[in-house]
Task: inverse folding
């Protein structure tokens, strides 16, 4: 209830919220709302920073208005968030938008001039206030992860609203903020490396207030957790692709359970020939030999061969050459026992020791 009363005051000054989360809405109005900016013109007139002078002066006026309005009505004692630190990070972020993140020299000079005016405004214009004053935080310039710190500070402000939306408004809202909380969990991992050490060097000053909002403490309790978990598992399975079938290696060889990639080549791959091609070539060569020997046998020892010999004689050179090759194959046997020896009419069965 206290938080709603505070935001009711914000809306009274700045109108109804444009965004769902408090930090988004406050920054939107901080950046775009022009109401009452003229009131702070004189305070920021000392800024000299060409060629972006007008934009820096406008930013200065927005900072002073924030100090007088938004920060003044904030809960400075019981809040888990720090709207003063938000103002510092938003100011620095806006300077990065104006000059570009690479122009660090101009950002440094502009931030220094705004903070000087900021301090003067606190001392003179806000002298009698009873609440703690919002002081400039110049160390942002030396923080390499200032964007993560800005995001973490915003999360401290937004947590309760985001958690309520994820819990009370189910379906799309739960899924939307489930992903939101997953990203914020990464922020906690980032800052744990600084905040878990004994010296806590580099740990944000507002970390302790927000430590209890770590998404790892409640993410699995959201109503859409089973659905989101299944989606992640399905996405991971789809990205991994179908599992290899039985007998098929990971490299896609259906004949081997072992990979045959570059790391473990077989003998045929070393010769540039695949096993299947080598097998086919061997089958063809064996067929040629069997066919040749069969043809020679038919030509020499069957009536069909005799007829062909009488009919075509020596004109059929391929058959003659083939028979000559067969003759040579068997001519090393003793002549008396050689079927192919011209004088071997007795057709004795010769024996040749193997």
Result:
């Amino acid at each position: 209830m206290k938080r709603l009363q505070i935001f009711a005051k914000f809306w009274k000054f700045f109108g109804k919220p444009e965004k769902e989360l408090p930090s988004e809405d406050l920054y939107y109005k901080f950046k775009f709302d022009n109401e009452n900016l003229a009131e702070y013109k004189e305070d920021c007139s000392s800024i000299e920073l060409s060629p972006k002078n007008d934009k820096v002066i406008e930013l200065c006026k927005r900072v002073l208005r924030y100090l007088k309005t938004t920060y003044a009505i904030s809960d400075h004692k019981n809040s888990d968030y720090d709207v003063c630190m938000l103002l510092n990070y938003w100011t620095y972020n806006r300077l990065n938008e104006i000059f570009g993140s690479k122009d660090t020299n101009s950002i440094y000079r502009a931030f220094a001039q705004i903070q000087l005016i900021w301090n003067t405004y606190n001392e003179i214009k806000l002298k009698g206030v009873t609440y703690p004053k919002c002081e400039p935080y110049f160390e942002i310039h030396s923080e390499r992860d200032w964007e993560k710190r800005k995001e973490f500070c915003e999360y401290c402000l937004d947590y309760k609203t985001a958690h309520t939306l994820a819990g009370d408004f189910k379906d799309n809202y739960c899924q939307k903020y489930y992903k939101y909380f997953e990203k914020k969990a990464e922020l906690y991992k980032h800052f744990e490396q600084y905040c878990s050490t004994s010296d806590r060097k580099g740990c944000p000053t507002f970390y302790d207030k927000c430590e209890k909002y770590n998404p790892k403490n409640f993410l699995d309790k959201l109503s859409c957790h089973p659905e989101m978990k299944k989606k992640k598992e399905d996405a991971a399975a789809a990205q991994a692709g179908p599992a290899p079938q039985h007998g098929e290696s990971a490299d896609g060889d259906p004949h081997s359970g072992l990979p045959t990639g570059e790391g473990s080549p077989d003998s045929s791959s070393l010769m540039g020939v695949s096993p299947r091609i080598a097998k086919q070539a061997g089958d063809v060569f064996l067929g040629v030999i069997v066919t040749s020997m069969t043809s020679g046998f038919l030509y020499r020892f069957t009536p069909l061969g005799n007829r062909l010999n009488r009919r075509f004689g020596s004109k059929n050179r391929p058959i003659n050459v083939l028979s000559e090759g067969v003759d040579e194959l068997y001519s090393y046997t003793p002549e008396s026992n050689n079927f192919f020896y011209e004088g071997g009419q007795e057709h004795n069965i010769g024996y040749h020791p193997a």
Residues 232 and 238 are 10 Å apart (CA to CA). The chain has a mean pLDDT of 77. The first helix runs from residue 2 to 14.
